[in-house]
Design brief:
The complex is a heterodimer of chains A (93) and B (253).
Chain A lengths: L30 H13 L8 H13 L29
Helix pairs in contact in A: 1-2
Chain B lengths: L2 H5 L6 H7 L6 H15 L8 H50 L11 H6 L8 E9 L6 E4 L3 E4 L4 E9 L6 E10 L1 H4 L2 E5 L6 E3 L4 E10 L14 E10 L15
Parallel strand pairs in B: 1-9
Antiparallel strand pairs in B: 1-3, 2-4, 4-8, 5-7, 5-9, 6-8
Helix pairs in contact in B: 2-3
The chains are: A mainly alpha (93), B alpha+beta (253).
Chain lengths: 93, 253
């Protein structure tokens, strides 16, 4: 990998995650949400765009059980899944 | 007496000088002296004559100075080469930063981008998952889905599962790799389980999520035009007491 002494060839530089590391879910508190997400993926041929609601639910579960720092869902890229303000039309899932 | 006159360099050959000195005084002694002089000179006639010797001496001096200048130039070139080899390291670094080659350029991404980015729906990318463990760690580590289809600009979730089948707790630490390397700079992880020690109790099994997205600029990069598959590979190692792994910029307590 990056241990080869090839001068000039590109090597991969791992970067730290933006928000750090997920604490481990030792007690399986969000396992049910995870199962729902995996089920959705299997049904939709592993298309992520169709299962965003389930992934949002999983992350919300994590936040509820102190397994993830609480953040507004817009910051996690779920802006289109939020409930729209009354003046706007419903967003697509 | 007259010999010094004869031996002094002049344009006329020594014989005429010898002949001139023949008026007067004892011709015999002078004649013998002249003959002696000529005889001395004859074997040495191999040497160039006075004219030639003068020119050769000048030429020799010229050659000597020319040699000296050439040697100086060569020595300067040698020193210059050594200096250049020392200077090439920071110079290359500057060049890489200026041109962005060698993978040092990172597609600018910050946390605000997650909020504002728009998914590029036309470009579907398959992300495959791979899980490895180091030989010394006894965890069972595998992905829970082999692949997932994402589009740039959309956040995605994926799961790995790790199980500790042994009777003692094991602490693992992981790193990841993205193939192709060029695409790795567009692969941004919002949150994952890497670079931090994860402790698994005996016979415990956990789900490990990876929350990531692919930068929307991926679609604009001409080098990525033919890239349809990105492989994310995680490797778990056993964390040993007191051993500090040199991990990139991520500090943990």
């Amino acid at each position: 990998m990056s241990t080869a002494m090839n001068f000039g060839t590109k090597s991969f530089k791992p970067r730290a995650p933006d928000k750090g590391s997920f604490p481990l879910d030792h007690f399986g508190e969000c396992k049910a949400f995870k199962e729902k997400f995996m089920q959705c993926l299997r049904e939709n041929t592993f298309d992520n765009s169709k299962c965003r609601l389930q992934s949002k639910d999983y992350l919300e579960c994590r936040m509820d059980h102190q397994l993830m720092a609480r953040e507004p869902l817009q910051k996690l890229g779920f802006k289109d899944l939020m409930d729209p303000p009354p003046s706007q039309e419903g967003s697509k899932p | 007496m007259l010999l010094p006159l004869l031996l002094r360099p002049s344009f006329s050959p020594p014989l005429t000088g010898c002949v001139r000195g023949l008026h007067g005084s004892s011709q015999r002694t002078l004649l013998s002296q002249c003959e002696h002089l000529l005889r001395r000179r004859r074997p040495a006639s191999r040497l160039p004559t006075r004219n030639h010797s003068r020119k050769s001496r000048g030429q020799e001096e010229e050659w000597r100075t020319r040699n000296k200048t050439v040697l100086t130039y060569i020595a300067a070139a040698g020193v210059g080469m050594i200096g250049l080899s020392y200077a090439s390291v920071p110079l290359y670094r500057l060049y890489c930063q200026a041109t962005g080659l060698g993978g040092t350029a990172v597609a600018g991404h910050d946390t605000d981008q997650v909020e504002t980015m728009k998914p590029v729906k036309e470009r579907i990318i398959k992300v495959t998952f791979n899980a490895d463990t180091h030989a010394s760690i006894q965890w069972n580590f595998r992905p829970q889905q082999t692949e997932i289809y994402v589009v740039p600009g959309e956040t995605a979730l994926a799961f790995y599962r790790a199980k500790n089948p042994t009777d003692k707790p094991i602490i693992g630490i992981s790193t990841y790799n993205v193939v192709p390397f060029d695409a790795g700079q567009y692969f941004n992880k919002i949150q994952c389980f890497c670079f931090e020690e994860q402790r698994l109790n005996p016979h415990e099994e956990v789900d490990m999520p990876v929350f990531f997205y692919i930068d929307p600029e991926f679609d604009d990069d001409p080098r990525m035009a033919r890239v349809d598959t990105i492989t994310l590979s995680y490797t778990f190692f056993e964390a040993k007491e007191g051993q500090q792994l040199p991990l990139p910029g991520y500090s943990y307590n």
